[in-house]
Every structure is written in structure tokens, then in C-alpha cells.
Amino acid sequence: MAIKIDGRSLKIEDVVRVARGGEKIELAAEAVERIKKCRGMLEKKIAAREIMYGVNTGIGEFSEVVLNDEQVQQFQKYLIYNHAAGIGEPCPIEHVRAALLSRINVHAKGHSGCRLEITQTYVELLNKGVTPVVCEKGSVGACGDLSPMSQAALTLMGEGECFYKGERMPSKAALAKAGIPVPGLQARDGLAAINGSNLITGIGCLELYDAERWIKQAEITAAMSLEALLANMKPYDTRLHELRGFQGAVTSAGNIRKVVDGSDLVTGKLKVKVQDAYSMRSTPQVVGALRDHMAYARKQFEIELNGVADNPIFLPDSNTVLTGANFQGTPISMPLDMVGAGVAMVSVLSERRLNRLLNPALSVGLPAFLTKGAGMFSGHMLSQYTADMLIVEQRTLSAPACVQSIPAAADQEDFVSMGMNTALKTKQILKNAYGVLGIEMIAAAQGLDFREFQPGKGTKAAHAAVRKVVEHLEVDRPLFTDHNNMAAAVERCDVLTAVESEIGELKSSW
User: Catalytic residue numbers?
Assistant: First the structure.
């Protein structure tokens, strides 16, 4: 059944289903009526020659320039031409699909003023698998994602390029093959197609979805390392965290306890230290802090998904036109900045546990660098080098973009969110995080191989999932293949799937 787009109920999971899964969508009947009603209001005002920003005036610094009737007819085309000014490689198809879905839901609110044909064309693009080619870089995240959304909007004129059935081709050819009419642009249509932070929103929704699954795998990996290091499990009693009150920590501790349930480590059969190092016993507090922020970030993104991100905004019920800055990306770029920093923070924690697994002074009896042939063999010594490099890059990328505004448009647009920088760097932070966590998983599995006690049911399932990808390191071999294969397995959530199949679903941040 197609997802109904009504302007009110879109969730992050819906974005994933459409952007990645190709699920069909349809405009709700009430959304269609709202779009028509708003357009009717706009056309009356145009006929009355009422001055409206971006309809019969220029934009940005040229907002005081009033256009004549002939210019109004041509302006939207040149607006899109001028703003399709990005650079770089094409955005991934899933990112553009997510952006189009976000824009459709804005239109469904009935305050954008475009013709219904514009919104319906975007619906058809998604449903028939036609994706505009959009340069990845160029948006400053205020006045919306003008550059990439304009490149997408070229399709509305049968111009630009699209991906269709695995091929890159002129938009006109793609639309013809898919049976989608070219709607063209009339007054207001162009600006209504571009004036919101929809690409940032779309990318961010996908990143939040991926980060949540990475966090669960971080907890599973922590459980593996804790078992390999003979940790004291009292710090993971949820009662401890309930007394402090942070829900993220309660969730994280509960997930880790669930993974190690049934282990000799929690039954008192093994002698453990009275108190472990911070990188072991404060895992719930650290991961939990990211979980709490993830819950806030999700709230912000779903508000944006279902809000009116446009300018100007038309209120048909009161026959009012409001000019403002609802395109400003800061309400989503700021929380996404911190999600990236939080993922980097938890990656640092992962590397510190990796260090304890490798260092014979800290590993509670494990062989140096997890090899029995120390001296002749170096084991996983160099795995830490790789993890460290990835983390330094994460740290570099964790500087917030939301404070990096550079004025543009003759200082008319003198504060911008730089949210596209946030989205792109968060993508790279997550990519590195798959590698960091994958390396800890490999080391934790190797450490567990040297232990002779009964691990938890979830830990055992995680170990088996790792062993499907990476064999035990008996003698030295090139490790880059293991690292890359395990990072890919983390990205695919192989270990998460195996563990949840065995012990049930782990709790999320929301």
C-alpha cells in the first residue's frame, strides 16, 4: 500500500522506505484540495497585481525589483537556471529521493502556492524511479537548499539530467521513457520547488536512521569487549542509571545486559575487579548521552519533515501572504552537527576498549596484541593504527558547521546554516564509525577465542556473526581485507541482525 502524503504524519522510517526501498507514495485527498485552494488564492492576487516576493519581484538582494507581466511568466525559468549552480559529484540517488519526498510533504500543507502539477510530477518521479542528477555541493542551508533543489527542478522543464533504470540520461528522455509529462513552470512554481532545506532534511533522516542502528551495534560490541576483558558488570545494572535519571543511559545499560544475559560473567562464577577503567564502566553514560541527543534530533527532523519550510507562505483562509525565513536550516543542522560529534565520541570510547584488548598490561591475561606468537607475529597491533586514523578524521569533522556562516547575496543573506556541510561531514563520520566499530568487533571476537567461560547468549551470537566475515587470526596476514569486510558488515547491520534474531530486539533511542 502506498504511503499517504498528508503534510502531517511523515516519519523518518517513511523517508527510508521511499528513498531506499522504492515504496510508492500518493497525495492524500485533503492535501490535493489544500494545494488547489492555495493556488487559487495566489492566482487572484497575481491578477490583482499585488506585490509578492518571488512571484512578481526578484529574489534576495533584488527583492525590491518589481517584474512586469511578461517578466513574471519568464522569471521562474531564469530563477531555476541561475540557482542550479552546484559543483561536484552527483548526490546518491537515495539522498535526492529523500529530498523530493520532503518537498512534496511541504507542498501537501497547502501553503506553497505552486500548481498541483508541480507536486504531482515530483510524486511521479519517485513512483517511477526517475531521479534528477544533483551536485552534492553548493547549498549553504538557508533560503533552503537552493542550488541542489534547483538542479532537481530543471526536470520540471524537461531539462538537466536524471538517473533512470541504472542509466544517466537527459531529463527529457527519462521523463519520456517513464511516461511523465513535463509540467513546465508558471508564476511561483520554481521558487515553491526549491525554497526549503529539503536535501539536508532528507540526508539527515537517513543518517539518523543509520546512526541508531550503529549505536545498537556499539552496545553489542561493548558487550563483547566487556566479556573478553572480564569486566565487572555491576555498572550495567539499570537501577544504577534509573537513580540518575537519564533515559539514554538506562536504555544503553539495559541493551548491554540483555546481550550478556546468561554469561558466567554475570552469575558470579568468575572473579572480576572491584572497579574497571572508565572506558569500560562508563559506556552506558557515554552511549546514553548520544541516545538522548538522538531522541531530540529525531524530534527536530520530524517537525521539519511535517512543517511549512518555504518563503513566502500563503494563508488561504485569511487571504494573507507572509514573508519570513522558514527555509533556515539551523533547527536541523545544529542537532545533526551534534549527532556527528556524538558518533565520533562513542567511536573514541570504542578505540579505548580496543586498546585494552591489545595491551597486555591492561587485557587481564589476554596475549599481547591478541596473538600467541608475539614477537614473530604482531597480531592486531596495526588494527589500532587504522582505528586511530579514522578517529582523528572524525574529530576533525566534528567541528560544528552551524557556526561557520559566510554572508552571501550582497549581505541580504548574511546568516546561513551551512547545514549541507553538516550533512556531508556526518555521512563521513558515520562511514568511519563503521570501520572503528568493525575493528573492535574483530579484536573482541579474537579475545573471546582465548577465554574458556560461557559467554552471554547475545555475545555468542555476535561472535558467530563476526566469524562469518573474519576468521580467527592464528598467524599474521594482511588485515586490510578483514577491516574492509567487517566495516561493510557493520554498515549492513549483520551483527545486529544476528543478535536480535537470537535474543530479541534491542531498545532504541525513541
Answer: 53
